Known about the structure:
single chain; SH3 type barrels; 7 strands; alpha+beta; 3 helices
Amino acid sequence: MKHLLFIALCSVALGCPHIGEGIEDFTVAHQPWGAAVEVTQSSGTIISGELLAVSDSSIIILWSGTVADVPYGRTRSMSFKAAHVRLGSGQRPSSSELERLRLVSRFPQGMTPDLQVRLLAAYHQKAIVSVNQ
């Protein structure tokens, strides 16, 4: 009887459909770059780019071939579809949102000085451009 019950439970568990998002639905898992980000600046200008790295005060994005730093406090909104995070005017991400953003960025470990030099050289820049509008 115990064996029959065990087999029945295993059959039900194996036959259950997958619930929730799987790796096949997670776009950043299939590409070597970071998640897409859309930023609405204080001026109303909308910029879209790739999320490179995340810090407590800003994000670093690749926008139109330019590595740029976008401070949270200087934006009207930020949207990160892959991480299911949307930030309002000047809002900083919570600690759990920061962790999700780090995981979907191109450099989840952050930007080391050596990595920053190499990235800037690859895009023919001397420094990261600050987006302050």
